[in-house]
Predict the structure.
Amino acid sequence: MSSTHWEPLFPHDAFSRTVMAKLDCKRRSATRPHTEIFVTYDDPKQDEKFVIKECYSKIDAITFKETMAKKFEHLMQWNHSNVIKYFGLELQQVKVLFDSKLIYRIASPYYTGGDLKMWAEKNVTPPMTGSGNHGELHVRHDAVGAFLRDLLTGLDFLHTSVKLVHCDIKPANLMLKQEGHRQVIIIDLDDAVLNDVGGEQSETDNACCTPCYAAPELIDCTALEGIAKAPPISCKTDIWSVGCVAIQLCTGAAPVVCQWQKAKDATNEWEGSYSFGKQLKTKENILYQVARLKAKPKLPDLGDDKLDQLLLSFIKSCLYFDMDSRKTAAELQIDDYFTQVN
Ligand SMILES: Nc1ncnc2c1ncn2[C@@H]1O[C@H](COP(=O)(O)OP(=O)(O)O)[C@@H](O)[C@H]1O
Ligand SMILES: [Mg+2]
């Protein structure tokens, strides 16, 4: 393997700082197996820490460089309290045998509160069997409401001001800014798709998704054999994933995708019944079934409380196959659930 120098597309002094620690990567998704996350500092007394994310590009070097330059130039102009702040980007060409690859590094602030996947694992207790509560989940509405509100605020900003579709909204890509605080930051915008062509929807050929959070229209982009081309993605693509995030914040675990049968005379997608018989496990199976056979994430078993029921209808309103039936992030911010929850 031979490499050239780092080319600073957007220079920042974080790149020359001392590496203090490498964040544990084992917990991360396998979508980018070569990613390394480092925490850096210069003067430990100042406590100014940055995160440097280093990974290989998945597409060819020239396209990647153009796409990243355009996206980051755009993204770095903006500031929002619920979206990651990017300080710099540099690239390096690496020759691996006869292949030429790009490694890129991105500098951002170090958020210390952990991601929402960790939060859900730690804070959500699945119902105890035989506890007499019929297996209902007890949702921490104060936290879930605050997290979802921040997520929608950040997404509304990304969709309307930055004109980006994130394409991989999931709890592991939502960080808490500081330990013990509830401010959510949307991270991992490397694969986000610019939606700035004037129309509502964009074509994408490099969307990267995590199957159990991915909207049906995103799935065909992963070029599964034998599946027809999907409709273009839009901001509503992220809204499906918001529903999946809400499910995980209630259940503590990633959504389970299962087959779902719509009743024959139902006028609405949600007027049907689940067939729980088939839980879909492998990535290909989930992708195929969601895209083709109308599988959906299983809804959580919430109680009869008003807030539980409002949260359930919020989740349903995110999970329509028909993109146009899903609300926008701005519309969802004024959903009844948020007017009732603290
Ligand atoms: N700025 C940051 N501060 C703290 N932790 C971070 C930061 N960025 C990423 N992480 C941690 O590293 C994980 C992977 O980062 P991410 O950018 O999502 O990489 P990937 O593209 O491989 O998914 C996140 O889920 C989070 O736990
Ligand atoms: Mg990620």
